[in-house]
């Protein structure tokens, strides 16, 4: 019995994640010893929780995406792994005096917030699966050993965090503030995780929900920190502020952050208004009820304009001190280089129109598998984003934010069935869905766009690895696409008996990314970028991300770019 259970503890996805963590820890300098220890403990704890969960009877509290494994280990270590890699990169910058110590310390604080968020959700999962409600106890193969190991991991992780805080900050109030800040992230992550899995049942695995949860908590926490820092700046001398909140944010990042968070909070705002409207029309005369749907739409669109046109720009103006209204600043930014940027926009529109119309007709009339058809959109991303990232990277940052905002608005309209676009958007989007999407939430287009955008956004500021911003475009647009197409047409040898991924497809994906890198590096050299990474390190990064694509049952558009980006930063 034990010999049969042993191989299940070491599947391909876990092996790739262990390789990813080992590579990150190997590259970490001694100055990041506390972060390395915490990442190791987090990985071990996540592995024990994943084994416990997948060895147990399912818990009714979690309705996860059908056909997907739990993905707890991958979901728990991805963002902290990104934070650790970014810390390693900034440590090199600090040694070269390219950045100030305050920027490194802020990213360090973000790392601890990421780790605490993931660790808190793991503790919550551990408690739920060891103490299920209604005496429906899970049958855990690890038994008492698993519970003891979980308790030990929690204690060691807390001890490492406290010791690090005590050594890093000389004053007691700063140590206390840091610990409270990290603990607040952990508490918020647990609440957000519960909200995600209950609001969007069967839309994500536990690991995917954990990734989304920790990402949102960090993003909202950064917004709150930015706002509080601005308030402090108005109340205390600037010199004191520079020691604690010394990183400089660009206008573009502030605009993107404001718009995206405004749209993420918008459903909470509009829900209250629509509930009032529903209550009014339900008791109103018949003539009023005839205009119910139209009135609902008017309230929705008017509220959307108010949030994006008044509330969000007011916050932007407060935290950034724009020389003009943020909307006017965007127009000035776009037309500061009109020939290049307007031409690029026209090129994007042409590519989108031709591709979408062509593939939409094919999807309705062709017998080609939808998963292969959607890979053409990955190639379209390469055609659109590579030229822009090389020649107009700052404009591409803003364009990604605008595209993601449009996707969010369309998804809200689709989910809420807002007249007159709700039905049309739903019909159009369903033509490009796959098995990972549901009627409740379509995530494939979000994950592709974010997978390409996040490495670019995270590479802002110091970046001594010119390929790092291309992590999403290379891994999804080229590697994932070639792996799927070659594997589907020529694949014979499968990685597992139950999976569809083939060794031929994985080899094609890895080879194509390496070939793309060899072509891209000379082009980047002409624009002033110098390749400082060892080719062996690049080969390992490409191979690990390719193996992750082959083995993972999670949403690869979300995880692969982040893992590839982390490895490229080392």
From TrEMBL:
UniProt-recorded Gene Ontology molecular function terms: dolichol kinase activity
Domain of life: Eukaryota
InterPro entries referenced in this protein's UniProt entry, alphabetically: Polypren_kinase
Gene Ontology annotations of biological process type: dolichyl monophosphate biosynthetic process
Keyword terms of this UniProt record: Endoplasmic reticulum, Kinase, Membrane, Transferase, Transmembrane, Transmembrane helix
Transmembrane parts of this sequence: 109-129, 149-167, 173-190, 202-220, 255-277, 298-319, 339-360, 372-392, 398-419, 440-460, 466-486, 507-531
Protein name: dolichol kinase
Organism: Escallonia herrerae
